[in-house]
Amino acid sequence: MMRMLVSVRDVPEALLAARGGADFIDLKEPREGALGDLDLATIAAIVRVLREPGNGLRRLPVSATIGDLPMSALGAILARVDAVAAPAASTT
Prior knowledge:
The protein is built from 3 helices and 3 strands. The protein has helices at 11-19, 40-51, 74-89, and strands at residues 5-8, 24-27, 62-64. A 3-stranded parallel sheet has the order 1-2-3. The longest helix has 16 residues, at 74-89. The protein is globular and about 40 Å long.
């Protein structure tokens, strides 16, 4: 069975992907490169809309990149992981 991951950059794209049959929603900004990250407010808005009770959407897995940070920036990486994960954790 083939499954489809769709990368989105805003709420309208996320809704279009979810309603169009995506199996996974990936949050990223491709104009910033393969690991281009979205701002935290956009991530929170997308997660909120996708997790909203009664929206008629099935609950899809959502992933988000933290950006293209150098491996030597461990503190920044850990902080960004926590910040990006916060919207998902608040809707579980």
